[in-house]
Amino acid sequence: MTQQLNTRNLLCPMPVIRTQDRIAEMTEGEILEVVATDPGVKNDIPAWCRINGHKVLDIREEDRDILIRIEVGPAS
């Protein structure tokens, strides 16, 4: 099941913090799609995922939106 998290119009570090909070409520293998407008998320969220054992499936841009799909890794 894919969940979506809207972080539009939030600036660093809020999209990462909201992503972290949502993933904490999810289980391994679930997919989270983060929708953001801050271009910094293209670096910040993948870096956070690498550190915390989650997998970025893809990053794409649609108009102003940046969409990042994350597969939740094992609980730490």
Secondary structure blueprint with pairings:
Elements: E1 2-7, H1 14-24, E2 31-36, H2 41-52, E3 55-62, E4 65-71
Parallel strand pairs: 1-2
Antiparallel strand pairs: 2-4, 3-4
Summarize the structure.
With 76 residues, this protein is of the alpha+beta class. 30% of the residues lie in helices and 36% in strands.
Structural features, described:
The protein is α+β, with helices and mostly antiparallel strands. The protein has a single domain, classed as TusA-like domain (Translation Initiation Factor IF3, 2-Layer Sandwich). It is built from 2 helices and 4 strands; from the N terminus they run βαβαββ. Strands 1-2-4-3 form a 4-stranded mixed sheet, with helices on one face. β3 and β4 form a beta hairpin. The longest helix is centred in the middle third of the chain and has 12 residues. It starts with a strand and ends in a 5-residue tail after the last strand. The mean pLDDT is 97.
